[in-house]
Design brief:
The chain is mostly helical. It is built from 17 helices and 5 strands. The protein has a 5-stranded antiparallel β-sheet, sandwiched between helices.
């Protein structure tokens, strides 16, 4: 269809050209015309037209041939350009996809860079923390070996002129040093160094390190011991061994690097625990001057307690059988038998009953007063020196408190001079403050218990004497041979009540006895109230 249309257009153009040729030829021929019209036949016109058509077709064919020669390269070029367009479009799509991929990759890389920056900062912080922890975990004797590596790592991390790669290189070098140290210390190691002895002198020598324990031996071999950390000292301080055999074994290990030696698995605490051990004399000396009166008081209280315990132990108590025999003799009115029976009773009770037998034919009041006098005398002897034990029990804590106060005063004086940083300089005052209180309580508690025990035994003896006196007085009162009934019968008089003069004298005697006995008669409000009273005057 496009070709036919193109043919028709060429044919129309040929006809139009033919018409122009005819008209132009007529025009050129017009001046030769003499004025008479040219006549052409139909056949001539047809022939002319056919000739024109042939000429037009020839021109058309030539045009077609020329057009064909020009269209084929154009078509080939067009095809090439179309292929090039398709290729460029494909390349455009590929470039677009690549650009999008590159943009996404750039975004991811930016995120990765930020993440790596954070990781780098974290790693740098971890390296710095590792260097600090590494120095803190080193044995004090090793610090002098790794001081340069630690300082280089710290200086690199704090230097703003270094790149991150240079900082990491310095820190990696320090990490390698620490790893080498880890492998070396696992099986023990020996190295040269310096330490401070107990006299404060710096000694050059050799260390042998195994785990948490380091042994030092000076070059002259005079100082051998474990290297430890002391407050206020940046150098290791040597603590010597207590046993000579341990010192010799440690010196051999430090010198030769092999052998057996006393290993302290507690990390140096064994020496510190051993240093706190002290004898009783050293412990007492730490208490200060207040300890001497406390100890003297403890010794005296103990001696008095032993003396009183022995005295109370040898006091004879009346046997029930012998006391019953005496009472039966009194009930029967046999004075001779009563005197014989009373001599068989030993101890203060026998002495009291003997005085009662001697006065049983007298008035009951006199008999009771005589026996009560023996009871008071015995009570005074039994309770003698017991108040001293009570005084020791009360005074020992007060002396301990006094030592505590003086110790605290000394501690504050030392704090004023040396400050509160060195605990050892304050231990003297603290020890004095606590030890005196401790020994004050140690003395007071046993003294209090001993006083209570001995006082109870003394009261037991007196109570038994009073019970025996009451029994004896009752038997005498019941007897027809002795007592007031017999006396009335002999005199032929009736007993009367005690007169006021007698009561006045009795009260004065009681007051005098109370003043003489003082605190020893705390258990008795008055002699009249405590003495055994029986009969009609009770």
């Amino acid at each position: 269809m496009p070709f036919k249309r193109r043919h028709r257009s060429l044919l129309g153009a040929a006809l139009a050209g033919l018409a122009l040729v005819v008209s132009s030829s007529a025009a050129t021929a017009a001046p030769q015309d003499t004025g008479r019209p040219v006549k052409m036949t139909l056949e001539q016109a047809a022939a002319q037209i056919d000739a024109d058509v042939v000429a037009a077709e020839a021109d058309l064919a030539a045009l077609r041939a020329a057009a064909s020669k020009e269209i084929l390269p154009v078509r080939a070029r067009l095809s090439e350009l179309q292929k090039e367009i398709l290729s460029l479009q494909s390349e455009l799509h590929s470039a677009t996809r690549a650009a999008n991929s590159d943009a996404l990759e750039v975004t991811n890389l930016t995120k990765d860079i930020d993440k790596y920056k954070d990781q780098t900062a974290r790693l740098s912080s971890l390296f710095n923390e590792y260097s600090r922890n590494f120095e803190a975990r080193l044995h004090i004797s090793e610090i002098q070996l790794y001081r340069d590596a630690i300082d280089r790592a710290r200086a690199a991390s704090e230097n703003p002129n270094l790149t991150q790669a240079e900082i990491f290189a310095a820190q990696a070098e320090f990490l390698n040093v620490s790893l080498e140290r880890l492998f070396e210390v696992g099986g023990g190691r020996a190295f040269d160094g310096s330490a401070v002895d107990q006299e404060g002198l710096v000694r050059e020598g050799k260390f042998a390190l195994l785990g948490p324990t380091a042994i030092f031996r000076s070059e002259d071999g005079k100082v051998v011991g474990t290297a430890e950390t002391r407050i206020g000292s940046i150098s290791p301080v040597i603590t010597r061994f207590y046993e000579e055999s341990d010192s010799m074994a440690a010196a051999e290990v430090a010198q030769l690097g092999s052998g057996g030696y006393p290993f302290d698995g507690s990390g140096g605490k064994a020496h510190k625990i051993a240093a706190t051990k002290e004898t009783l004399v050293e412990h007492i000396q730490k208490g200060g001057a207040i300890m001497y009166p406390i100890l003297i008081m403890a010794a005296l209280a103990l001696l008095v307690a032993v003396y009183k315990w022995v005295g109370l132990s040898i006091v004879r108590k009346p046997r029930k059988k012998k006391l019953r025999a005496l009472l039966e003799a009194v009930a029967e009115g046999d004075e001779e038998s009563a005197r014989r029976r009373v001599k068989e009773i030993k101890g203060p009770a026998g002495k009291m009953l003997s005085s009662g037998v001697d006065t049983m034919r007298r008035s009951r009041d006199l008999m009771e007063e005589v026996m009560y006098e023996t009871v008071l005398t015995t009570k005074t002897k039994l309770q003698a020196a017991l108040p001293f034990i009570a005084i020791c029990a009360a005074s020992a804590p007060l002396l301990g408190l006094l030592g505590t106060v003086t110790g605290i005063i000394n501690t504050f004086k030392q704090i004023t001079v040396f400050g509160s940083g060195d605990v050892k300089s304050l231990s003297g005052g603290i020890s004095e403050a606590l030890i005196t209180t401790k020994f004050g309580l140690i003395v007071a508690i046993p003294s209090l218990l001993l006083h209570a025990y001995l006082s109870r035994r003394a009261r037991g003896v007196v109570t038994q004497m009073e019970a025996s006196a009451v029994q004896f007085a009752n038997e005498v009162a019941k007897s027809d041979e002795f007592g007031e009934a017999a006396d009335t019968r002999r005199r032929g008089t009736v007993p009367t009540m005690m007169g006021p003069e007698h009561e006045l004298v009795r009260g004065q005697v009681s007051e005098i006895l109370t003043d003489l006995l003082g605190p020893l008669s705390n258990d008795v409000s008055s002699p009249a109230a405590s003495r055994p009273t029986v009969g009609p005057n009770a």
